[in-house]
Each structure stands twice: as C-alpha cells, then as structure tokens.
Design goal:
The chain is an alpha+beta fold and 399 residues long. It folds into 2 domains: 185 residues, Periplasmic binding protein-like II (D-Maltodextrin-Binding Protein, domain 2, 3-Layer(aba) Sandwich); 204 residues, 3-Layer(aba) Sandwich (D-Maltodextrin-Binding Protein, domain 2). 47% of the residues lie in helices and 13% in strands. Strand 1, helix 1 and strand 2 form a beta-alpha-beta unit. Helix 15 runs antiparallel to helix 16.
C-alpha cells in the first residue's frame, strides 16, 4: 500500500506548478509514496503554517520562505535536518551564507534545506546612463549617489528615470531594508520587541527612500510590483530595484543595454528552503521526497521557473544563457555571497506582513494628501502607525 504525502509550495506561477506536477508524477510511479502538491500564497501562508504547527496533520514537506523558518523552529514545528543536510549540501561554501543562516537555528543546526535564492539588484539602462554622463561603477553605491544618478537622468531628458512599487509589495520591504542596512539600521530592535522606523536614524532612511517618488512619472504612482517591473522590462523606465526574475521579461532592446549593480554594495538575499514538519508521521518518506527535490539536476530548472537563483551557486552556470549571461552571473554571485537577510527575531513572519501593510498605507496616504512635504507627512503619520504595530507586537509576545 502506498504512503500518501502532502507537499506544499509557495505560489509562484503556472509554469512551475505544471513542471513540478510532472516531476512528482514521475516520482510517484517509481516510489512507494504518492505525493500530492498544493500551493500556499504568501498572503496567507504564514497563518496556514501556524495552523499546521498547532493542529498538525495536513502537511509533510513544504517549501517555506527563508525569513519565516526561524519562527517555526522556535515553535518546535520543524524537524531538525542536520544529518540529511550534511549529506545533501556537501561543501557549504557553495551556498549563500545568508540563506544558510536562515535555514539553521542559533546553534547551526539545519531545519531546512536551501532550495532557491532571491536577491535584489539594481537594473539599469547602460545607454541612458552613458548619455547622461554617469559612471556606472559607483552610480548606486550609496543612497546619496542613487539620488544623484536619478537626478542626472532627469537632467539628460529621461522622462521615466525610476520605477518602484508603491502599493502592497514585498519588493518594497526588501528595497527599504537595503537602504536601512547601508546606514547601519534595521526594521526592528535586536530583541524583536520594537519596530524602529519612527526613531531618528531609521526615520531619516525611510524619508530618503520614500523621497525617490520625485523621480516617478505621474502615471507610475500607484504601480504594484508587476507594473513596476513591466515598465522597466518594456523600456519605459531607466532604473529599478527588483529580483532576478526581471531578467526573464526584458525585451531585446532592454537586454542589449542592461546593466546590473549591487545596491549600496550589499543587498538583500532571501529565498526558500524545504522543511519537514514534526507533526508528520511519514518522516522517512518525507526525507526521500526532500532529497529528490534537492537534487542538483532539478535546482537550476526549478529556480529558472521560479524566476530565482538556485540555492547551489555552482548551479547558476546551468541556467540558460538567455536568462543569465556569463557577465551577469558574476555580479549575481557576488551579490548573493555578500548579501544579508532579514534579522532572526521573534514573530518575524507576522512583523514582515505588518510592515508590508504599513508601507502600502504610507504610500496611499501620501499620494492622497497631494502634499509634497514629506517631512510634515511623516510627522503626522509615521509615529501613530509604528506605535500601533508595536502594540500588536507586544500583545503577541505577551500571549
């Protein structure tokens, strides 16, 4: 009699789902297990995983966003995978340090197998920077240089120098994190008990990031992540910060003039890992499935379909050259090796979701106010929003 396994992935796209269903169908034919797959959205995934942690029974193996793993380790919901990880990973220098950190606990014990790598990069038009007399080498090396570069593009006649999502978007959370890290700040205190954005230093960084709206075309205000990406990929805008998935969608003219840069010299790195749930009664079969999904032959293909990079850095060379060129591969690997992830603080998954909502709310209220005085806006709006978030956080930690 076959063993039924429940496998969940984060919701990515139809092409990935179709390919994984094909892979699992082949696995089911050869294995004593029968694996069923379902998708979990980023919008509701954290709460679904919390329910699985409390009540158990519905999932055996899951793809989990890297920044959520620590929460579920703290809940005791994930099975330690040290022996399995040591067999699968091999040389850990072949993996992103930030992703390995997300997949392990404070003692270095793995509770997830690194599966895919997300990295934020500056995408820019080399031809337009050259026309504006901007040197590529340090054009995005600091918040000040970033602003100067966009201003120079405006002066050279570029109508859409910059695009960014200004609605609910995790891309915005990643981008602001880069700005905060460059100034030596973070979203939350080391204890995880307080969001810091209303304090003087982090507030100034937030102001610097929000002030980039000045370089948005009027019709680009209110773009979500998809529309922001599309405006760059189709040649409308000159600069954006996005994940590597954008490489798949750039039109030929944009690709021919495409430059990549590491924002502020150190960027955000995240991704996902494969976890085995402690509540599962099918641990041996779950390990076999995780081992198959972690196979090097699948890593590059799965990452490509996700629009991410493989967890194994030597698998980047297996990606199609029309997705990642050799020149681009060098900058991407450099960014991944030197990147940083969100801090491991209690309840980060909940905090992350609330921060995304908070940024969306700030953008909406700012554009609705029709007032370009960003300082006055933050004086009125920031502290109350952060205080409410800190109250929610305090209530969660007290319960």
């Amino acid at each position: 009699m076959s063993t039924k396994l429940a496998f969940s992935i984060m919701s990515h796209n139809e092409d990935l789902s179709a390919r994984l269903n094909d892979i699992l169908a082949g696995y089911n034919r050869k294995s004593s297990s029968q694996v069923s797959m379902r998708e979990v959205t980023y919008e509701h995934g954290w709460s679904e995983f919390v329910n699985n942690s409390i009540y158990g029974g519905s999932l055996d193996v899951s793809e989990m966003g890297a920044s959520w793993i620590n929460d579920f380790v703290a809940m005791g919901a994930l099975r330690p995978l040290q022996q399995l990880a040591s067999k699968i990973l091999g040389d850990t220098t072949n993996y992103p340090p930030a992703l390995l950190n997300c997949c392990s606990d404070a003692h270095g014990v793995y509770h997830a197998l690194p599966w895919a790598t997300d990295v934020s990069l500056v995408f820019y038009r080399r031809d337009l920077l050259q026309k504006a007399g901007i040197k590529e080498e340090d054009a995005f090396s600091s918040p000040a240089r970033f602003d100067e570069t966009l201003a120079a593009l405006v002066d050279s006649g570029v109508k859409w120098p910059w695009t960014m999502p200004t609605t609910r978007s995790h891309v915005s959370l990643h981008a602001l994190f880069i700005w905060l890290q460059a100034a030596g700040y973070n979203y939350v205190s080391e204890t995880g008990k307080n969001v810091l954005l209303s304090e003087a230093g982090p507030r100034q960084v937030l102001r610097s990031y929000l002030s980039l709206y000045r370089y948005l075309a009027p019709e680009a205000r209110g773009f979500d992540s998809s529309r922001s990406d599309r405006s760059f990929a189709t040649g409308n805008s000159a600069v954006c910060v996005a994940g590597v998935w954008l490489l798949k969608y750039c039109n030929p003219e944009v690709r021919a003039n495409l430059g990549l840069a590491i924002p502020m010299g150190k960027t955000y790195v995240g991704g996902s890992g494969l976890v085995l749930w402690n509540s599962s009664m099918r641990q041996a079969e779950s390990q076999d499935l995780a081992r198959m999904l972690s196979d090097v032959d699948f890593q590059a293909e799965i990452a490509y379909l996700m629009g991410l990079m493989p967890a194994r850095l030597d698998s980047i060379s297996r990606l199609p050259v029309d997705y990642v060129s050799p020149e681009q591969r060098q900058i991407i690997e450099l960014a991944i090796r030197g990147g940083v992830s969100f801090p491991k603080t209690p309840l980060w998954g909940m905090v992350e979701d609330r921060l995304v909502t908070m940024l969306d709310m700030l953008w909406t209220r700012f554009f609705d106010s029709e007032n370009d005085d960003l300082d006055k806006f933050l004086d009125n709006e920031l502290a109350p929003v952060v205080n409410r978030l800190n109250m929610v956080l305090a209530n969660y930690q007290a319960s």
